[in-house]
């Protein structure tokens, strides 16, 4: 192959990569935005939600997500999107700010003593990540995943308090007051969501 | 008929030339130095800030195994800490030791990137380790990991070493690296950095456009309530709500300003007249997020990406001049 042909081929390859890369970014971002509309989280009228859902499904299809999990094209696209950091959209803190979550462990000891603890983090950066994990627990629709994640956190707490015989994990949402409510003296409130009991036998 | 065909062909050729000039401009690699130094600093801060929690967040007793199992359902080729753990097991090392080695390697790589020693190798190494860590702790990762992956991905592929690398002062350090990158560029030594800069710039435009668009779809960003909620939501409640409430009239203005700033970013960041103003405004927004919400790493990575993509040509006196031009002129009565 001559150097001119080689150069032309290389140019076409770069162009193809450019097209694919930006298609994944644009389709992925559009898909996430449509998903927010379809779930009724935006100010878009309800009658357009169905249409947004159908368009989102088309966008998912373009990303290969409608194919079977073993489909090599789908797996290749997923891998590329993960390694390039383009597997998620960019709707941070949007369209609304969700509730914050809190996890408290009630530690019970053999002598009848009861103690309370929070998931352990040592730094501010670690705390931000713990909040991400609690958000994931609060957001997920899978009971199994929620229980598994809480169990992992409970196990970490158990390592800190090995004498405890039982741990009850209490998960709840922190409800934030509006500006008007805050001015009327209302503070953050706590809403119970789930509780899980774990014993040392487990 | 023939002349119409000739006209269409000429127009297409003109568009093709314009697209080529836009996509593959002849540019210096100064932006790449900004990105390399910025991401080196960012990664070093990332390591140091997580030093105390590293084992708790990424150890095998945490959600790592679960996260990696879920990731494997999607793809088995995405880097993860489980690979390093398997290798460590073969070598008879404990998981804690493996984590400590990974952390040390990441920090050393960040320092090497910062000063520009074997920059492409270390950019790839840092990208790999950081990606592994963020995928293995996917349940606790957030925006900063995503933007670090994006930045490191482009840095790894861009034509390193740049002119401010240590290798530029000490050429034999980088001889091989430089040769390979120039060999790839072959005929387009000054065009390759330009192409990667365009890719990076366009990606940032999409990020801000969709960030602004999704915010504009929620009523809370128009009446300021989302901004209030973001600032009082634990653990972002760095400023006491008693202080915040004093500026309650500013919340709707700030909320709308953020939406408009982000959504119009792809328009105004390209124009020479408005670029300095938009860049300063967006960096100010990220500084404010860092200070008022305690998201220092997030603020740093966003400023690094913005300054590397659009900042190298901007000088402070230019910004002052542009601001003065945009300020409404008040004539004496």
Main features:
heterodimer, A: 202 residues, alpha+beta, 2 domains, 50% helix, B: 333 residues, mainly alpha, 0% strand, globular
Outline the structure in words:
- The complex is a heterodimer of chains A (202) and B (333).
- Chain A has helices spanning 3-38, 49-62, 72-84, 124-139, 143-160, 179-183; strands at 100-109, 114-117, 164-175, 189-199.
- Chain A is α+β, with helices and mostly antiparallel strands.
- In chain A, strands 2-1-3-4 form a 4-stranded antiparallel beta sheet.
- In chain A, strand 1 (100-109) and strand 2 (114-117) form a beta hairpin.
- The radius of gyration of chain A is 24 Å and the shape is extended.
- Chain B is mostly helical and 333 residues long.
- Chain B has 2 domains: 26-175, no CATH class; 191-325, no CATH class.
- Chain B has helices spanning 2-23, 30-49, 54-58, 64-74, 81-90, 95-115, 119-136, 143-157, 166-169, 175-185, 191-216, 220-223, 225-232, 241-244, 250-263, 265-268, 275-293, 296-310, 316-326.
- The interface between A and B is large, with 68 and 72 residues.
| Total beta strands of chain B | 0
Measured distance between first and last alpha carbons of chain B: 63 Å
Oligomer description: heterodimer
Look at the structure and give the mean pLDDT of chain B. 88
Specify the biggest β-sheet of chain A: 4 strands, antiparallel
- SSE order of chain A in H/E notation? HHHEEHHEHE
Summarize the structure.
Chain A has helices spanning 3-38, 49-62, 72-84, 124-139, 143-160, 179-183; strands at 100-109, 114-117, 164-175, 189-199. Chain A is of the alpha+beta class and 202 residues long.
């Amino acid at each position: 192959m001559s150097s001119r042909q080689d150069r032309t081929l290389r140019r076409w390859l770069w162009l193809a990569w450019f097209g694919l890369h930006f298609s994944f970014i644009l389709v992925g971002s559009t898909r996430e935005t449509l998903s927010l509309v379809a779930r009724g989280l935006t100010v878009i009228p309800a009658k357009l939600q169905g249409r947004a859902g159908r368009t989102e499904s088309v966008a998912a299809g373009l990303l290969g997500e409608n194919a079977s999990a073993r489909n090599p094209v789908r797996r290749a696209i997923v891998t590329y999107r993960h390694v390039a950091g383009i597997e998620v959209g960019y709707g941070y803190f949007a369209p609304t700010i969700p509730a914050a979550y809190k996890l408290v462990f009630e530690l019970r000891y053999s002598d009848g003593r009861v103690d309370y603890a929070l998931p352990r983090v040592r730094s501010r950066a670690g705390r931000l990540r713990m909040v991400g994990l609690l958000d994931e627990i609060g957001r997920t629709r899978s009971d199994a995943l929620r229980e598994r994640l809480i169990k992992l956190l409970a196990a970490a707490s158990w390592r800190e308090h090995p004498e405890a015989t039982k741990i009850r994990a209490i998960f709840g949402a922190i409800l934030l007051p509006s500006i008007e409510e805050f001015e009327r003296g209302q503070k953050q409130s706590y809403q119970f969501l789930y509780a899980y009991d774990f014993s040392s036998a487990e | 008929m023939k002349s119409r065909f000739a006209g269409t062909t000429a127009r297409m050729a003109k568009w093709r030339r314009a697209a080529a000039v836009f996509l593959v401009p002849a540019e210096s690699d100064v932006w790449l130095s900004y990105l390399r130094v910025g991401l080196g600093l960012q990664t070093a801060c990332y390591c140091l800030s997580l030093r105390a929690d590293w084992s708790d967040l990424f150890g095998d007793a945490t959600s790592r195994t679960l996260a990696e199992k879920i990731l494997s359902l999607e793809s088995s080729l995405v880097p993860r800490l489980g690979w390093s753990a398997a290798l460590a097991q073969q070598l008879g090392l404990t998981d804690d030791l493996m984590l400590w080695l990974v952390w040390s390697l990441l920090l050393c790589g960040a320092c090497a990137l910062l000063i520009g020693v074997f920059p492409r190798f270390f950019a790839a190494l840092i990208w790999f380790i950081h990606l592994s860590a963020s995928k293995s702790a996917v349940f606790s990762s957030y925006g900063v990991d995503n933007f670090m992956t994006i930045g490191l991905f482009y840095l790894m592929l861009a034509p390193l070493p740049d002119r401010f690398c240590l290798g530029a002062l000490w050429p034999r350090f980088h001889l091989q690296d430089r040769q390979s990158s120039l060999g790839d560029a072959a005929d387009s030594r000054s065009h390759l950095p330009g192409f990667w800069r365009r890719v990076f710039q366009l990606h940032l435009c999409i990020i801000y456009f969709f960030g602004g668009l999704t915010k504009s779809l929620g009523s809370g960003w128009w009446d300021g309530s989302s901004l209030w909620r973001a600032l009082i939501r634990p653990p972002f409640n760095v400023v006491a709500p008693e202080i915040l409430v004093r500026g309650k009239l500013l919340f709707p203005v700030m909320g709308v300003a953020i939406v408009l700033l982000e959504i119009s970013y792809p328009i105004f960041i390209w124009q020479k007249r408005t670029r300095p103003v938009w860049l300063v405004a967006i960096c100010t927004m990220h500084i404010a997020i860092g200070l008022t919400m305690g998201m220092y790493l997030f603020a740093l990575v966003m400023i690094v990406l913005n300054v590397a993509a659009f900042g190298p040509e901007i000088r402070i006196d230019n910004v002052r001049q542009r601001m003065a031009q945009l300020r409404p002129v008040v004539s004496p009565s």
